[in-house]
Amino acid sequence: MRRLSFLLRPGWIALALVVIAFTYLCFMVLAPWQLGKNSRTSRENHQIERSLNTDPVPVKTLLPQQDSSAPGAQWRRVTATGHFLADVQVLARLRVVEGEQALEVLAPFVVDDGPTVLVDRGYVRPEPGAHVPPIPRPPDGAVTITARLRDSEPMGKDPITRDGFQQVNSINTEQLSVLMKVPLAGSYLQLVENQPGGLGVIGIPHLDAGPFLSYGIQWITFGILAPIGLGYFVYSEFRVRRQQKPAPATEAPMSVEEKLADRYGRRR
Questions:
Q1: To 10 degrees, what angle do helices 31-52 and 212-243 make?
Q2: Could you give the CA distance from residue 42 to residue 205 in angstroms, rounded to a whole number?
Q3: What CA–CA distance (Å, rounded) separates 17 from 169?
Q4: Residues of the chain with pLDDT under 50
């Protein structure tokens, strides 16, 4: 134990605490964060690929009731017949479409014999100074639309009002239902090209798994190497200290005269 007493010094204790904290972060925070993003990306890619090869279905088959949502069918193409609530529109601000700033226009759509759903009509480009440009009203009367089913986004900051439009930071159906004072289904619809009331078309993401899996594996590797590195430093320090330990002192050999004097001195 005395040989390892150097581990109780403040510098070594601090180093051990840093390694423990780093290892914990790698295994419990950083690696799960990246692996979770990889799982979500893989699931979304699978949903997109499936939607490209599947014919549209009536929205009521996936959203049969007012409080329905369909997280397992995101990006699936659906059709709906009904009418827009043209006087109720909200803008999603701070969006990016094709690398440029955009405003997405949101409006409720009442499905015949079905739920009221939020419809993302598409995007418009803001005018200089981030002002809202003129936005065409959606058509009055009954229309049939084709759209992609989308999951509600996490709730963002409180809405603001600018240029006569209420604006939100995220497309969260619960928040927008309160803001619009209209009941909305849990999932929303994003119009595809050439649809009644459509604006700039928002494309689907590219099928790219991204680097999240490799990042997750890297953090796991770092979490394994950190304690191994600490162990190596402890071993190296212990070996150096053992090599530097002074050898025990030995008595010098006695000369012949000393031996004779010692012998005859004992006889006397």
A1: 160
A2: 12
A3: 40
A4: none
